[in-house]
Write a structure and sequence with these properties.
The complex is a heterodimer. Chain A has eleven helices and ten strands. By secondary structure, chain A is of the alpha/beta class. Chain A starts with a helix and ends in a 5-residue tail after the last helix. By secondary structure, chain B is mainly alpha-helical. In chain B, α1 crosses α18. The longest helix of chain B has about 40 residues. Classes of the chains: A alpha/beta, B mainly alpha.
Chain lengths: ~260, ~450
């Protein structure tokens, strides 16, 4: 594993947003994530790639402590957000998740109106004092998620009535409405058709101006298109992490090369 | 990205060419099996349907009679000399005359009515009164004490006929069956026939069955479900007020917050077991704990409600947990993902989606409790207790009462066949309430059901 540390140092970025050191995750007796250390840069898109069950989603869920909701999951190691340990006893995961938003694999809007979907986060975090403020927050989030034009005339129609791609953009709007600093996306396009995927990718590209985006994806083309850094996971190990261009054109680890050339996975 | 060998997987032997227009033996066998299975299913359905129709028609056939009652329109001369010899019209003086004192007035009025119908009879006036309910005197007295100015006038009353006469009008009692009956003779029936002919005796809708109280064993014609219905209402209010919040809170804790360990597994298994405990066990538990230990009043709907709460809780908990489980985990993830706390996720998102399931479970549990008899009998809510309405709204919880199914049971075990008819009638009332509750369950489900 020592050789891998070397690559990480090579890929070190200035403006580290999240820094993970020696993270291990166990689900009961299964060792899902083995000694992962990674620095995620600010205002960059970082892609996690790797075959199914390699631990990339597990690691993503560590970053906003969504693994806390799985009783059998045990996380060790240190993950820092802006230099503060997010697994510190004093950290309330609820507050953390307001800073580290998440978009899931399957679009999961609440069975409420589009407006209420987006307004929910700001409401519970007290980000809007008045109804007018809330309207502004909702409009801003929907505009940033490139959904405003399609949704502005039907803000009070149920969010579940949108198409799949629109629903996913609604979920992104919902996540950015709470003004997070990091946006975690767990295979956000796996349930979408190519056109909707292209829209979401375009959106991710715009989002990186304001947020750190971490995206888990099965599509290497997508990783290549949207990310600046790429991490390759295999069997619970972080095999290689570096500039996206370097990972795809000049991988240093033979396993990375096998995966991106389609020989394993 | 697994390798799929393409070239080297040659078929072992070429399949014989076969037309798809002819079915082979295997397909025919499968089709036959499917046809058989459908026939079994249809047969099972028809058997069930037959029993349902049989049950419903026998209930209606036996019970509808309870909703009509034979009445006797009688002009009674309320003689001042009998009721208020001093002419004071003082209610206290008039109340001194017992129901016995009205006997002569009724007999005189009856004799007049019989004479008016033009039939000759050699029955004594005292025997003649057997065609009226023994409660008729009380019926008249109640009205006179309420309005003393009636004394001295001739007032027309709608008096209850005796249960035998009622049975004769409804076809339950015949001249042959009266041969062994000391209460009424065929001679009475001749008079009844004549009085029916001139309209003095007639059958009308029996509001008293729905609003009235239970009556003594001698007067089935007076017995009604009303007080027992009120008893059931108070029992159900108690159950709803206790079982719904406790059950939902317990389910939310178990489903959303409790750590999954041996202790919660143990609780879970025991809740499932409690749902299968015979109801009479809850009854004897209620007797021991609520009445003997906690010294709550006997026969009180409050205690009945407490016992039925214990009985309903497992049903509500199981239904609520199932409803909570059915909410997709992605909704919880979504809520937690935007920074909602566990409680906010549950109360803002999970619980509203589970409401239809919870309400259906609760209403079905309540319907179960509404029909429960055995535990009520053990804590003293037996049918004959339901003879008076409670004094006030809050008194309803503690004043001795019965409930509808216990009232039905009480009537069913009484000797007079007229009570048998009322027992069936009581079942109809009970079924109407159960149907209404199920209807509410369906409507609630429709109203709150959301798709996601």
């Amino acid at each position: 594993m020592n050789d891998m540390r070397l690559f990480e140092r090579a890929a070190a970025v200035d403006g580290v947003k999240i820094s993970a050191k020696g993270v291990n995750v166990h689900y009961g007796t299964a060792h899902a994530l083995k000694d992962v250390s990674v620095d995620i840069g600010d205002r960059l898109v970082t892609a996690f790639i790797g075959p199914s069950g390699c631990g990339k989603s597990t690691f993503l869920r560590c970053l906003n402590r969504m693994n806390d909701t799985i009783p059998s999951a045990a996380v060790t190691g240190r993950i820092e957000l802006d230099g503060q340990d997010i697994y510190d006893r004093r950290v309330d995961p609820v507050q953390l998740r307001a800073k580290v938003g998440m978009v899931f694999q399957k679009p999961n809007p609440f069975p409420k109106s589009i407006y209420d979907n987006v307004a929910y986060g700001p409401k519970i975090h007290g980000l809007a004092k008045t109804r007018a403020d809330l309207d502004v927050v909702v409009e801003t989030a929907l505009r940033r998620a490139a959904l405003w034009n399609e949704a502005k005339d039907r803000l009070h129609a149920p969010g579940t009535g949108l198409s799949g791609g629109q629903q996913q953009r609604l979920c992104i709007a919902r996540a950015i409405a709470t003004e997070p600093e990091v946006l975690l996306m767990d295979e956000p396009c796996s349930a979408l058709d190519p056109i909707a995927t292209a829209q979401v990718e375009e959106l991710i590209d715009e989002l990186k101006q304001n947020y750190s985006v971490v995206i888990v994806t099965h599509s290497m083309q997508q990783a290549a298109r949207v990310s600046q850094r790429t991490a390759f996971f295999h069997l619970g190990h972080l095999v290689e992490y570096g500039e996206t261009g370097q990972i795809f054109t000049n991988p240093r680890d033979p396993r990375t090369e096998s995966y991106i050339s389609g020989r394993i996975g | 990205m697994t390798d799929i060998p393409l070239g080297d997987a040659a078929p072992a032997a070429p399949r014989p060419a076969r037309s798809i227009l002819e079915t082979d033996a295997r397909t025919r066998a499968r089709n036959r099996a499917e046809t058989r299975f459908r026939a079994y299913g249809l047969a099972a359905l028809l058997v069930g349907l037959f029993f349902l129709v049989f049950l419903m028609s026998s209930i209606l056939w036996n019970g509808l009679g309870a909703f009509t009652q034979t009445r006797f329109a009688l002009d009674v001369e309320l003689l001042e000399s009998e009721l208020d010899p001093e002419g004071t019209r003082d209610p206290a003086v008039i109340a001194k005359t017992s129901t016995f004192g009205y006997g002569d007035l009724i007999e005189a009025a009856l004799a007049k009515a019989v004479a008016a119908s033009g039939i000759q009879t050699d029955l004594e006036p005292g025997d003649l009164a057997d065609i009226l309910s023994s409660g008729a005197a009380a019926q008249i007295r109640d009205r006179v004490t309420a309005d003393p100015s009636l004394v001295g006038q001739t007032v027309s009353f709608d008096l209850l006929a005796s249960s035998r006469v009622d049975g004769y009008i409804k076809g339950r009692v015949t001249r042959e069956s009266l041969a062994d009956d000391k209460n009424l003779s065929p001679a009475h029936l001749d008079i009844v026939d004549a009085l029916v002919a001139d309209g003095t005796i007639a059958r009308s809708f029996n509001m008293a069955f729905i609003t009235g109280a239970d009556a003594s064993e001698k007067r089935p014609e007076e017995a009604g479900m009303g007080v027992a219905m009120v008893g059931s209402l108070y029992v159900m209010l108690t159950v709803l007020a206790l079982a719904l919040p406790i059950g939902v809170a317990a389910s939310i804790y178990l489903e959303e917050f409790a750590p999954k360990n041996r202790f919660t597994d143990f609780i879970e298994v025991n809740i499932a077991n409690l749902a299968a405990v015979p109801s009479i066990v809850y009854g004897i538990l209620g007797l021991a704990v609520f009445i003997q230990f906690a010294e709550l009043p006997q026969s009180a709907p409050l205690v009945g409600g407490l016992v039925l709460t214990l009985l309903t809780l497992p049903t509500i908990i199981i239904a609520t947990r199932a409803a909570l489980k059915a909410v997709p985990p992605s909704i919880r993830d979504a809520a937690l993902g935007v920074g909602a706390s566990r409680m906010q996720a549950v109360f803002h998102h999970v619980l509203p989606l589970a409401v239809p399931g919870i309400m259906t479970g609760t209403i079905i549990g309540m319907a179960h409790a509404l029909g429960e008899t055995a535990p009520l009998l053990l804590i003293g809510m037996v049918g004959f207790v339901a003879s008076n309405y409670p004094d006030g709204a809050l008194h309803g919880f503690v004043s001795p009462n019965s409930a509808m199914p216990a009232q039905v049971y009480e009537w069913a075990k009484r000797a007079d066949p007229a009570f048998y008819e009322r027992a069936w009638g009581g079942i109809i009332v009970l079924l109407v309430f159960l149907l209404l509750m199920n209807l509410v369950a369906v409507l609630v489900r429709r109203r709150f059901e959301r798709r996601w």
